[in-house]
Amino acid sequence: MKQTVFYRLITLITFFLSCYSWWLLYNQQSLWWILLGLMLLITILTFVYGLKSVRRILAVPGLSLPISDFLLTASAIGYFASALVGFMILIFQLPFHDKSFMIFPLIIAILLFAGATLGLYHDQI
After folding, report:
1. pTM of the predicted protein model
2. pLDDT averaged over consecutive 10-residue blocks of the chain (125 residues)?
3. Which of 61, 83, 93, 104 would be 14's cystine partner, CB 3.0–4.6 Å?
4. Is 99 exposed, middle or buried (CB count within 10 Å of its CB: 0-12, 13-18, 19+)?
């Protein structure tokens, strides 16, 4: 599959929004930042090396349980959810009193973030 410029752009935007969510968790001194940081680390490895290589890296020899599949699925869900939360936090910080008009851009963003996540983890999910 050929990666287009739009796909790379929306994947980077999704990743930066996930990093923004991670930074907010870190600043609030919540311990969830550790889990999200590990998920983002797996996502970075998937960006750079590809899904098959990351699956081989995460494979535990001698264990018949699919731990790498579980970690990759959890990473994909965390990547999508953290990007969505980061985008919603940015939307709610806008200086408008009535934010009901933002429902359609939010739906479009949800579809774009889901597409970026599915594109990155398309062999796993």
Report:
1. 0.79
2. 73 89 91 90 86 82 74 88 90 82 85 84 61
3. 83
4. exposed
